[in-house]
Specification:
mainly alpha, 4 helices, flat
């Protein structure tokens, strides 16, 4: 796993672009499992917007790992990808929900 110690901004950006996708799948499946296998209200545990926010928040894990290993350029890439995801999410919410 030596490749994870690559201190390049593009690597951090690429890594942080993949992590929220994995987080989204995890939280979506968790929500579906809770909706179908437990006595919950009809919508499940989380709203769709909240699942998106949790998926973006998953970038905190690679950020903390990069911080602990002092990979400053990789942290810049992670922050950049997180900002791009956040702006896209904000644009999507404004377009779909209108406010």
């Amino acid at each position: 796993m030596e490749f994870l110690k690559t201190d390049k901004a593009w690597f951090g950006f690429l890594f942080a672009a993949i992590v929220p996708l994995i987080g989204y799948v995890f939280f979506y499946e968790l929500n579906e499992y809770a909706r179908t296998h437990t006595i919950m209200f009809y919508g499940g545990l989380f709203s769709k917007k909240f699942i998106y926010i949790l998926a973006i928040f998953c970038n905190i894990l690679p950020f903390l790992v990069a911080k602990r290993q002092r990979l400053d350029h990789q942290m810049q890439g992670i922050v950049g990808a997180t900002l791009v995801y956040s702006i896209l999410l904000l644009m999507y919410i404004v377009k779909v929900y209108g406010s």
